[in-house]
Protein 1
Amino acid sequence: MRLYMPRIIASMCVAGLAAAVAMSLPAPAAAVVPAPSDGTTITADATARGQWKQNFKWTISKTVTPASWQLLRGDSGTSMFTVAVTKQPSTEISWIDGQVCVTNTGAEATQGLSIVTTLLGGPGFSQVIGAQNVPLGASDAIGPGDTGCYEYKVDLPASARVAGGSYQISATVAISNLVGSVGTPAGPTAAAVATLSNTPLLLNDSVNVDDSNGMTWVFDSSGSQTYPKTFTCDQGNFTHKNRATIRQTGQFSEASVTVNCASLKVRKDVFTSLQRKHKWTIDKSADQSELTLAVGQQYQVTYTVDVNARPVDSSWMATGTIRVTNMAPFAVRLLSVSDIVSPDIMASVSNCVAGAVQVTLPYTLGPNWTIRCSYAVALPNGDSRVNTAIATAQNMSYDAQGHGTPAGTSDFSGTAEVNFARAAITEIDKCASVSDSFAGDLGTVCAPNVPARFTYTRWIGPYEACGNYTVENVASFVASTTGVTGSDRWDIPVSVPCSEGCSRTQGYWGTHSNYGPAPYDATWALVTPDGEDSPFFSSGQTWYQVLQTPSAGGNAYYILARQYIAAVLNQLSGADTSAITTELALAAQLLADYTPGSSITGALRDSFINTAGTLDDYNNGVIGPGHCSR
């Protein structure tokens, strides 16, 4: 590291450090060389401090018991977590560090600066302990009046380490342009004394351990902490991962508890009986609500006819069976089984059987056992309802040894729709005949196979002249018993522009040539001389081949060429291209000047890509006369 500071501040710092050193040991005076005109002069000062540290290592482990639980939803289990740390033997390190500051007191910048620090100890600092070249950073030149300060560090081996002992740093500074010694490195020597502390600085003598379950402990020596955590089975299977971390070192250990949550599976069926009269409805729709076509263009529309029947019922009754299966790998105490039809109509539950034996509740249900109960309920009307069966089980709270005590209850439910469409019924207008003004007879629909849907396709167009048209369509039904009828219609307005056609994408033109697969669009025949097989500029390909060639690697030529082909075909089909007159001309010029193998980079590539983007907006109807319906 190299620092520069104003000369006055540097002198103050140096003076203070020199005074402190002088109190313990006289240091050689900073050398100043008289300043003739053949170089420059420098002074040097040094600081020193002793560092002695003792670092303790730790290890950490975390365990848990039990590490897994098999519980019923609503049960709880308490696991015991243990965090243990071990204090390892310490290691000691010591060194002397500080700064050597060099001040240029002459009139020109220093040259060839070097600094060597020597660590001395023993009686009268007669023992050489170590030496090093001080790193100078990116430059060794110090300008006139400037001070450069350089950091050093010399390791103090254990063999030379004395508690409370003093050590001297001798810094030899040299430059190659010192006055009087130009060309021969020379300079002053600065010294500083450091005293080692009587005892080392202790690192990690004690540590803080933070636990992700919310606990924190302080350890001065090896030890452990144990605490409980309760897990409640209120969701599906899950794993709780826990970590204990030594705050000072970042070391950690993890322990996980896996909770497997089982449940009672409740299933039920519903059988209904009633008298029913069906009220039929019909809905007609299509995948297009309006169309814009060019003169001579066709478009295929898909029509949909949906029919449904709403029952009007009386004498409603629902009966069935409730099945409760224990999905847990252990026995569960089943307390009760009840049944309710929305909103709050209670059913009568009776005749509970396990296997072939009739049982009474409460009842202990073994693993994978099933109990079956019958229910019956009279309903006030035929509204759509939900029938819910509820099995109530005893919950348990387990300690770490697996001993359980009763603790609350949990409900398990299964639902079924009360749907009188499947009832034993006397039916009126059970079936309806469906027809369509386009498709004719669509067929007969009978409850309960409702709702039912019919679909068919029909070509709209072509129109020989521009103008506005309407395609009308009506679907109808006739009920089987009473002859009641109903209908619905879907009319499609069709606009055939007289002067401004609509645009289509390159995808359309790529599939509507003589090569298929879609119906041929005669616009291709307007491309000279051979339609889609006409040569495309100097590409060596036909119009169709260029349109089918992918722009591998982002080939700018093909990106522009495909959009240009689509725009020209749109123009030939009658679409107004005034919005892209400039871009069409520019594209034609670029495609005439270059080939697919040309190097198209930089601003030229930008021109290709930007022009293609504008043509793409036109072909997609963002600009121009608008996009065709297909």
Note: The longest strand covers residues 76-104.
Protein 2
Amino acid sequence: MAKYDNNFTDQLRERLSIVDVVSRRVPLTKKGQNYWGCCPFHNEKTPSFSVREDKGFYHCFGCGKHGDIISFTMEMEHVDFMTAIKELAEMAGIPLPEYKPKTREQIESEETYISITADAEKLYAEKLFTSDGAHALEYIRGRGFTDEMIKKYGIGYAPKNNIIANKFVNTKQDKLIATGLVRRGEYGLYDFFRDKLMFPIFNAHGQIVAFSGRSLDGSEPKYINTTDTEMFHKRQTLFGFNFARENIHRANRAIIVEGQIDAIQMQCNGFGETVAPLGTALTEDHIAILCKANRNITFCFDGDGAGQKAAARACGIILPFLRDNSDVRFAFVTGGKDPDEILRKSGRAAMEKIISSAVPLVDFLWKITNTNYLVNTPSGKTQAEKFLKSQLEKITDKLLRAEYEHEYDSRKFNEWHKWKKKSDVQNIDVPDIELTTKNTLMFIVNKYPELAERYGDFISSFNLSFESDIPDMNLDFDSAEKYLISLKLQKYLEKLNSDRKQLVADALKNNNSESIKDIDKKIRAAQEKLELLLDLNDK
């Protein structure tokens, strides 16, 4: 049977969570690290069908069915392999490549590629401990790296001469160039990496597919990476993921930092679940890979403007991947420091404090909105509303999106309109509010926010608390507005009558009846308006 090459099927498995694929047909419940449901392949009442998200497979302990997203789609849809691949590619939002079975030449080319990169890593590692690499070794040790850490992560040094081009002089030039380690110049091949501290980049299977080189003379860019090749794509590769995968499972979360050294220091200081993007902004592919392992993600960025901007971008990218079991947070390292410096100077406890104080996504998105828009003005408030709406529309889980919308509606009412803040106009002193009135006002505020804004000053005088459940008072928009107007008139009348009593008392002392006549006129006018409104309600 014809098959797509492993690169594309692996890409599908990396991009799609098996929980998302299976849950379209089988209701699943999370218990421990696995998801459980009733097996779709045989009749059962007690769930014995287990789905393991981080491993990407399902297994039924009743009938023994076992497989991945491809076999599940084939079984459930009763389709062949090619049709299942097309359906999954559409679900993943990635183009289906033209089918071309791998030739023996392609297989040999991939094997040669891996062989060259593995040999190059050994060569760089040896050079680090020679006189040529002395300054690089001094630098990395100065960053707190032990020899054990250097060996584990395969760190090395690329000298200024053409060490790779000379080493692989007997290798076919096209195969060597395909690895990105050398380029062709006017006088032959030359090394791409020169005078760089070298970090090998592993794929998910632990094979070296590329390198990241750090400058040692202060030149920019600080890092350069292997250009994209047939076996390496920066947008789809997370540095340190091969080491972090099992730790992500055990810690029940992933941590994303900004650089390779930060990621290594985090992994070696008790945060083994840490990864980093490679010299490129975070991508949807990065998030898809992590969500397959675990949907709990903590972003840890620098607290400066660039870090805040990167975090805001990450927030927008991850929204489509949110599920009801996601716990996404944002932590920031302030004071111009990064995780590496915090760990070296203040220790693991200080870093743990930063991670544990991470802000939940719901709060961070709210902060972005309030920071970027002047919500105390009508136009700014409108822009903020549009921004929030555009962000929440990215959440594909409709029920989860509704919960976010409800949460932000509540925050907009309590914070943007500042209901509990004293109004500039004179408030009516209402020491006790009757329960029915309170419930009706709470219902109107939550059901009709435009009325809440229109009569905000009046409503704020009641100093309502919205911590309890909001009752359903069964009022349409017009009835709700009439209720507010009539209540406002009633309170106005109460104040006028109170003022009249005081004026009567003063008149007895000062013989001043004109003020009493004036307030009686206001009372009659208010009563007429109230009676008219009540008549309209009856009709």
Note: The CA atoms of residues 181 and 192 lie 5 Å apart.
Protein 3
Amino acid sequence: MASFFKKVLIVVFSLFKFQQQQNNEQEKNKTQKKNNKPSSPSNKKKSQTPMDSSLSVNLDYIKKKTGNSPDIVVRRLRAGGNSEIQTAVVYVKGLVNNAFINDFLIESMMKHSDLHNNLDRQKILEMVPEEIVALGSVKRENDWDKLFESMLTGNTAIFIDGVGEALIASTQGGSRRSVQESGSNISVRGPREGFVESAETNLAMVRRIINNPDLWTESMTLGKMTKTNVSIMYINGLARKDILEEVRKRLKQIDIDSILDSGYVEQLIEDNPRSPFPTIYNTDRPDVVAGNLLEGRVAIFVNGTPFVLLAPAVFIQFFQATEDYYSRFDISSAIRFLRVSVFLISLLGPAIYIGATTFHPELIPTQLLIIVAAQRESVPFPAVVEAFLMEVTFEILREAGIRMPKAIGATVSIVGGLVIGQAAVQAGIVSPAMVIVVAVTAISSFATPAYSVAISVRLLRFIFMISAAMFGFYGMLLAFFILLIHLCSLRSFGVPYMSPLAPINLEGMGDTVYRRPLWKLKHRPSFIAAKNIIREGENQRPAAPEGRLMSRESEKGDENES
């Protein structure tokens, strides 16, 4: 037995060295690619068609560029009372606020008495944003690409005949999904708001929580075709500068046609894309984003999706739910310990059953072993085939329940599982004990708060089942060691993925599986936050016994007076 464990340790250390060499080679390849990377076409100057001073020429160019699409509205009008000043308003139907355009733009320009033919056209261009149009933002533009980009985000272009420039008025609007309760991160206690598809609304929701001028945002456009607005948010003085620079650097290196969801950005900036574990956290709750920003993390908002990315991420973070900080520390700690235990059950449950029944029956109590053996007597397959059949069947039912309409999806998955499980047992294909193991494992996978980790466990479960079928518990132990080595080798924007467990950070250990009381969480995680790590003052503990005694004495005094 001792020689076997020595061999196992030798294999583990050799795999760890191989993993380190592979990571070093990947970093070298990345640096070589960055150095040899050709200049992207987006950085090259393109030949632009200049704006013409003729209104008709500019409108014809817009119609030609957009294919004369019916949703591109071109509204020609005469500015001023009785003047002959030809102007035009161009916007995209459905992306603008029609009340803004009609009341504060078109009506103001048509009825303004100071506009007349004797005015210089450049003078009119200056008067429109200063005296005529009562909108929040109006700016001048002579670049066609920027003009089309502004129009396609809900702004309105104003053209004046005789001027080779245009005005961009802020009229964003249209129909959007209202703020609703989060559908993926449901909590018993806490705020009920969830993010929507508008990045501007999401940024404002976080600002309502953190009323601090040090909450800074930066914006950029990604996607050569979609021109998706991506914003990063952080608290100046809390976020580490090296992490912030790394986030900016990775975002600016993205050169792709389309960004349709935050998942695109996550896959293009994560540290180890070959790992089954996510190294970037995502959520659709404003309070979760605010809490992580206050710890020193950086949030990435992508327009068009309600899910916000948070970096850097650590492994234990995926087992923390929203209401952990809204409840008492003893209850939160017990539930966190339950989540970690459930994670191990969902990862190792079928593998333990396979290893125990195939290689180590002496570890099973005798009475239970007799029952299991009697159940498996009529099953024609070994335990690993039995487990694979049930696991694959349950995965099919789970995927079908998700993709089907909500009215019948849950019913089909539940009824299908009951019917198929009962029929498989009666047909002698699987044993009742295997059905129980697979059912407990499936329910355990649903108890993990983060879906990205739960789906990773669904894949790794099959690897542990194969290891247990080949070498029993020794194969499971070897696979578990390899998994731990892989987790310890991961990084998230330079932060060790297993922090504060490995390397050990005693101050950060108070918010892992066990959560200290709020009055003891005096410091932010030092491996994430910058120098300003103190987040609460002294003497935050609730009233001392002396205070309670004084209150009791005062109550007695009040009773005597009465």
Note: The first strand starts at residue 72 and ends at 79.
